[in-house]
Structures are given as structure tokens and as C-alpha cells.
Amino acid sequence: MSETIDSLLHEERRFPPSSDFTATSVATPALYEDAGKDRLAFWADQARELLEWSTPFTETLDWNNPPFARWFADGRLNVAYNCLDRHVLAGNGDRVAIHWEGEPGDSRSITYAELTREVMKAANALEALGIRRGDRVAIYLPMIPEAVIAMLAVARLGAIHSVVFGGFSAESLRSRIEDADAKLVITADGGWRKGKVFPLKNAVDSAIASQTDGTSTVEHVLVVRRGENDVDWTEGRDLWWHDVVDSAPDEHEAEPFEAENPLFILYTSGTTGKPKGILHTSGGYLTQCAYTHKNVFDLHPETDVFWCTADVGWVTGHSYVVYGPLANGATQLIYEGTPDTPHPGRWWELIEKYGVTILYTAPTAIRAFMKTGREYPQKFDLSSLRVLGSVGEPINPEAWIWYRDIIGGGRTPVVDTWWQTETGAIMVSALPGITSAKPGSAQVPLPGISVDVLDESGNRVGNGNGGLLVVTEPWPSMLRGIWGDPERFIETYWEKFDFEGSPNRRMYLAGDGARLDSDGDVWILGRVDDVMNVSGHRLSTMEIESALVSHPIVAEAAVVGASDDTTGQAVVAFVILRAKQAEAQTAAEAEALLKAQVAEQIGAIARPRRIFIVTELPKTRSGKIMRRLLRDVAEGREVGDTTTLADTQVMNVITDKLR
Ligand code: WT7
Questions:
Q1: What is the spatial distance between Cα 598 and Cα 614, in angstroms, rounded to a whole number?
Q2: Average pLDDT, stretch 204-231?
Q3: Which atom of ligand 1 is the closest one to the Cα of 531?
Q4: How would you label 521-550 residue by residue, b for 16+ Cβ within 10 Å and e otherwise?
Q5: What's the pLDDT band for 4 if we cut at 50, 70, 90?
Q6: CB contact set of 214 (below 8 Å; sequence gap of 6+)
Q7: Of the candidates 161, 244, 245, 656, which lies 20 to 30 Å from 492 by C-alpha distance?
Q8: Mutation test of ligand 1: which of 278, 524, 531 has the most ligand atoms closer than 8 Å to its C-beta?
């Protein structure tokens, strides 16, 4: 690890913006100057400029009770109105909001006027089903326009959405429905993926049926027809979207809510087995989504076609498929399926077809395309592209250069954007018309954002050194808490750097390691906790371990993230079987069984790449599993220092067995 980091830090290539780009750049150096002069005044200006407030705010930030921040708290606005109606009222109703392409090749282009009407109908329908301000609505949908419509309809009513990625299992959905006491679930019969329909509704049925206390808070399940596959039906509870929404009135007045009205909960993996429900609110979140989407991607809404390839089930989809682009009145592309269906050039074909100008995707995808080869992108005209973005995990310089050269034709700026579910929007990134880009580094905090790198005791490490990444000042789109668990919110993020005697000097612990180079630019080194990053998705070692031990054949399990050429990290598990099972089964049978178990409990993204059946796990005298040693094994390295093990022979036993 440290070797690759050192070679990364010796990356000497620099890509200053071209004078053509700078000439029309949305962001100008004045942003840094203004934010540097008066950070809060800067954010207040952004909030006023980018959004329409029904009641203007007078106070920018209330940080009297840290870490519970209140931004623009006496202002009122409606989030959906800001994403829809106001663009129509400003005369842009005919602008396309969404070009949608289904995996089988069906497509729809939806203007702002049409999208506004659809959301109004959906809001009326939801209201008729009893959804009111503050109610929780779970959304479990494929990447179809109804996913965006559903989210905005919930937001329009001041209710709270909890979008659950369609690749998550019934069990994951159950725990999220239960944690948030969702009243309504919006799903589809199925969606298209890799040339086939994958079912969703049946997972909702079993999630509701298996709710632990036998009763469910879910009153209705609203089902979009997409896969045309058969579904079971519970009369009275289940309703078709086309029955309920299509016939609803297409006028709906948006009620303004206070800026701190909760907007959504999004679950993300932490260091324990239980996912955290990250809570975001309205005014501050929308301000920073709009601000970052505009400046980081150099958005010219009249001419650009933006494409963020993330699923709405992740925070990237919330902020850069739904809220950022729509608040800015942008035109965007949404694609339902996988990049290689029906052919490996599908993405590039879509870029040509829709004239996409800004592409925002993850390093995993880029590395996968590098493997399949440049001949696929080179079959299509990608000359419309002018800005490329990367998110989710560190992008290695090789992938960065390939992205710029092969996809961007050697012309386009590439912005590497660091942020998290918790931060709500981009925090650290180059600005394409201003920053001289450095492949592999996320570079600089955005104007208005303050980050630093500290050592374990809270001292600044300074340039040339590594440590823990922190955010030193509150920011508008910061998480407001963990749903139902204020203690965990404080413990996880705010306790480590709570500087005594100065209550408002609490700093936000991101959970990432980082280094500052000699220019002070930030290089993200990856998680410092028991969280893995697989294809830009966060997975918890503990959560996968508990999925494994919940299988009757397993006695004990340890999971590590091993580095992987394509996905960044991959899940590798070490499992001890119960004595009887160990005899009854071959290792290959057990491995197959347990891979399926994890996919079923959590979702296919968590399925381990390898499961090693072992007879011992390396533990310290206090019983803590030394994952570091298992990672050595998983990555095929010489095993490191074993002197702190209770039984120093254990690693020999494991490596002998696996040889
Ligand atoms: C974790 C957050 C933010 C949307 C996608 C993931 C890693 C994110 C970068 C980047 C290096 C990155 C961090 C972070 N990460 N962006 N540009 N360079 N690492 O959201 O699931 O909340 O995961 O993703 O480790 O903590 P998330």
C-alpha cells in the first residue's frame, strides 16, 4: 500500500485548463476570494442565487449546539418546486429535463413542464394515500423516470424518502423499512439488467412479511409496471402506479417547508453490522447540490447534456441525478441498464446519440472499460464531451489518463471529486476552468469548504504528511444526524476531534486517510475503519461477517477488503465451519453456499470474491481478529508481523492450508 502511495505522490503530470475552457468557465477565481473573505456570507449568497425561497432566511448558520447544525433555518422553501415549477414559470418548460433510455432500447424524453405535471400527479396520489409531511416512504425502483418522479413527489409533500438500491436484498430492504417505520413502499414489478428482467416486487412482499414483530407499518405498496413480469398481489395493500397516479389531478400547489425539514434518509454501511440511516434536510442540502453541480461540472444549462451514471439508490444518484441537475434546470441522461448490454460500447453509443457533454462516473467503470479495450469507445463520436468527473474511490493516474485521452479525446478536464453519503455533496475537487489538474489527487477543498489532515492527537500534519481527513467547519449539505440514533452520530463523526474547552471546535471525522502533498493538495488513501470500498460502494466487514455467521454451517467468519484491479477492493472471507459441516461438505460446496448466503442477506454487490475455509483465525490475546494478516493472505503477500497473536502458529496453519 505505502509503495503505491509513494509512486502516486510522485506523479508529475499537470493539466492546466485550456484558455478556451477558461474563457467560458462558470467558476472564476472570485469564488475562492469571496469564500475566503466571509465563508457564511458566501454560502448565504449561493443559497439566494441558486434557489427560490418562499420566505427568505435571515440567519445563515446556527452552530450553537454542535454537532447539530441548522442552516438557513428561518427560511422556507419547497425542494420540488425549486427543481421543477420555477423552471417552467421562468419559461423553460420546453427544455428536456430527462432523456431516459431503457436497457432494451426504449426511450422517453421528458421536458420540465411534463416532469412537473408528473410529479404533481404523483404528489396528489401520495397525498390521497395519506402521505403527509414527515412520513417516511421507501423507494425500491430500477433506474426509470418514476424513480425521480417518486422522490420529488415525496419531497413536494415535505415527506421523507428512503431510497433502497434495487440490488439490495429483501432482508436489507426489511431492515430499512423497519428502521424508518415506512408507511408506503414504491416499487416496480421488475427492471432490466443484463438483458433480463430482475424482479423487485417479490422482495418487497417478503420484506414486509418478515418484519420482526409480525406487524408492519407499511400501509400500501405502489407498483410501477416496467418488467411486465408476474407479481403476487395483496388486495387492499398493493396498488398499480398507473391506476393511482395516471388518474390523479395534474395541479398541485407546493407548500413551503422550513429549510431544516428532513428531505431523505439514506442508509450506508458503518463499522458495525447495522447500516446507518444518514439524514439530510432541505435548504442547505439543495444549495450545495446546486452549487457543486454548477461549478464542478461547469454547467451551462441551456446547452449541456449531463450524465451521471450512478443509480438513484446511492447518494451520487440523489445529489447528481435528482437534486443538483434539476435544481439547476439542466438536461440530463438517465440510463436503466448495464454498460455492456447489449454490447460493450453501449455507454459510448448513448453519449453519441444524446450528445452528452458532461460525464460523471466511477473509477471502477473506467478500469473495466480499459480492460475491454479502447476499440469500443473509438467506434463512436465522443466529441461532444467537454468535462469528465470521477467519484467513489481513488482514481489511479493510469485510469485518469486513459479517461482523459480515450474518452475525453485528450481535451477534456477531469475532476476527481471526493465526498460521502454524509457530506451530501462534493467537498474536495478541482474546478475545471481554474485548477491545474493532477492525476490521482482529489486536490483542493471547494470554495466554502474547509478540510484538513490531522494526526491521531489532532495536530495538523502539514504538507508532505499523511493522517486523518477532517472537515473543520460545518457545511450546508452536512448530514444532520443518524436516523433514530443521535448517540451514534456523535460517536462516529464528532467525538474523536472534540477539542476541549471550545465546544464549537468540533471537527468532522470523515473516516478516510489522506495525505497532503508539497502543494497542500489532498490525496485520498482510503478508509481507515472496517469499511471496504467495492466498486465505489461502501460495505462493512461486520455486516458481511454477520451475514456469514447467520448461516447454520458457519462457526466463525472474518472478512477483509483485498485490493482488486477493477473494483478497487474485493470482499474476501475466511470462514471456520461447524465441526459436523466441515466433514459433510467440500470446501467448494461450502464456498458456493456461503457466497449465495451473502448475496441473499445483503445483495449481490456484497458477494465475496473468495471464501477460504480455514480451521483457525488469527487473534490477539484480547480476542480481536487481526484482519491485517488476513489481508496479506488475500492479496498473496508475505504475512506481516505475527508477534502479537495469541497463537503465533495460526498463520502458518492458514497459509499451509491454502497453498
Ligand atoms: C467513501 C464514501 C460520494 C459518493 C460515492 C461514495 C470514498 C469517495 C472518493 C474520491 C477517493 C473516494 C471515500 C469515502 N470516496 N469519493 N474521489 N477519491 N475516495 O459515497 O458510499 O458514502 O462512500 O468513498 O472512502 O469515505 P459513499
A1: 18
A2: 92
A3: 25
A4: bbbbbbbeebbbbbbbbbbbbbbbbbbbee
A5: low
A6: none
A7: 161
A8: 524
45 burial level (CB within 10 Å; 0-12, 13-18, 19+): middle
Q: What pTM value is reported for the model?
A: 0.93
Ligand 1 centroid from CA 132, angstroms: 33
What distance in Å separates the CA atoms of residue 560 and residue 634, rounded to the nearest whole number?
A: 8
Mean pLDDT of 139-152: 98
Q: Which residue among 319, 403, 508, 538 is best mutated to probe the pocket of ligand 1, counting the most ligand atoms within 8 A of its Cβ?
A: 538
Domains of the chain in start order, with CATH, are 19-438 (3.40.50.12780), 535-657 (3.30.300.30)
Cα Dmax for the chain: 74
Asked whether the beta carbons of 34 and 43 are under 8 A apart, the reply is no
Please name the amino acid found at residue 434.
I
Q: Give me Rg for the CA atoms of the chain.
A: 24
Residue 1 pLDDT class (50, 70, 90 cuts): very low
The mean pLDDT value for 6-25 works out to: 86
Write the burial class of residue 2 (CB in 10 Å: 0-12 exposed, 13-18 middle, 19+ buried).
exposed
Q: Give the residue from 349, 281, 275 showing the smallest Cα distance to 313.
A: 275
Predicted confidence (pLDDT) per residue in 471-483, tens digit:
999 999 999 999 9
Q: What is the mean pLDDT of the chain?
A: 94
- Report yes or no: 532 and 606 within 8 Å, Cβ to Cβ: no
DSSP 377: G
In three-state secondary structure terms, 361 is strand
Which residues have C-beta within 8 Å of that of residue 643, sequence separation ≥ 6? none
Cell reading at 21 = 475552457
Is 402 in contact with 269 (CB distance < 8 Å)?
A: no
The helix/strand/coil state of 228 is: coil
Per DSSP, 606 falls in state: G
Q: Which amino acid type is present at position 80?
A: A
Contact, 518 vs 464, CB < 8 A? yes
Kindly state the helix (H) or strand (E) to which residue 127 belongs, with its residue range: helix 112-128
Atom of ligand 1 nearest to the CA of 524: 11
C-alpha cell at 13: 503530470
Q: Where are the alpha helices (DSSP H) in 210-362?
A: 241-244, 283-296, 315-317, 324-327, 346-354
pLDDT tens track for 262-311: 999 999 988 777 899 999 999 999 999 999 999 999 999 999 999 999 99
Quote the CA–CA distance of 220 and 214 in Å, as a whole number.
Answer: 16
H helix or E strand, kind and range, residue 110: strand 107-111
Q: What pLDDT sits at residue 385?
A: 98
Is residue 466 within 8 A of residue 49, CB to CB? The reply is: no
Backbone angles phi, psi at 311, to 5 degrees: -80, 150
Q: What separation in angstroms does the CA of 453 have from each of 7, 461, 489, 502?
A: 20, 6, 21, 19
Ligand 1 pocket, residues with Cβ under 6 angstroms? 268, 315-316, 391-394, 416-421, 442, 510-512, 524, 526-527, 533, 536-538
In angstroms, rounded to a whole number, what is the distance separating the alpha carbons of residues 531 and 271? Answer: 6
User: Angle at CA 97, nearest 5°, toward 96 and 102?
Assistant: 95
